[in-house]
Amino acid sequence: MAEGLTEDDWAVWDAFYSMRRRLDRALEVQLHEESGVSAPEYEMLVGLGRSRDRRLRVRDIAEQIGWEKSRVSHQVTRMERRGFVRRSDCDSDGRGTWVEMTADGRRAMLEASRGHNEAIKRYFVDLLGDDADRLSAFSERVLGALRAESDPRP
Questions:
Q1: DSSP secondary structure string, the chain?
Q2: Which tens digits make up the pLDDT trace of 45-54?
Q3: For residue 7, pLDDT beyond 90
Q4: Can you tell me the distance from the alpha carbon of 99 to that of 148, in angstroms, rounded to the nearest whole number?
Q5: Distance of alpha carbon 76 from alpha carbon 49, whole angstroms
Q6: CB-based contacts of 149: which residues, under 8 Å, 6+ apart?
Q7: 66 phi-psi bin (left φ>0, alpha ψ -120 to 50, beta other)
Q8: Are strands 97-101 and 85-89 parallel, antiparallel or unpaired?
Q9: Is the pLDDT of residue 153 over 70?
């Protein structure tokens, strides 16, 4: 066992980790079975749907979802084949590429959202109850600590 972690610490971590992985998997299965959209496709479509012009640069998508730019590019290629997105050159930066959601991509996102939102409510929100504010505050603390570690500036 790692130094500094008690058995109780491990029990809490194991319960959280197992819950998170199983929840992720249940949501991924629901998405794919009900809409035919994969979790990575959905994540990118939602990000594009929230953007002002339903388009983002590859680097912004990568930053938003925590992927390497090459992984985003490969995913975009797969999504282009399905007609969900299209690429275009960025006029202000010759090296940059825009990824824009198509009408088919928007339809796929909206269709997938219905069942996905219901699953999130059923598996998470309804069970969270009065602990929502505490979980939100805890999540922000963890994210803040991770950002502080990844930001080399003082």
A1: --TT--HHHHHHHHHHHHHHHHHHHHHHHHHHHHHS--HHHHHHHHHHHHSTTSEEEHHHHHHHHT--HHHHHHHHHHHHHTTSEEEEE-TT-TT-EEEEE-HHHHHHHHHHHHHHHHHHIIIIIHHHGGGHHHHHHHHHHHHHHHHHHH----
A2: 999 999 989 9
A3: yes
A4: 30
A5: 15
A6: none
A7: left
A8: antiparallel
A9: no
Q: 36 Cβ partners below 8 Å, 6+ apart?
A: 108
pTM of the model: 0.82
pLDDT digits (tens, 9 = 90+) for 71-124: 999 999 999 999 999 998 877 766 678 999 999 999 999 999 999 999 999 999
Ordered by where they begin, the domains of the chain are 34-114 (1.10.10.10)
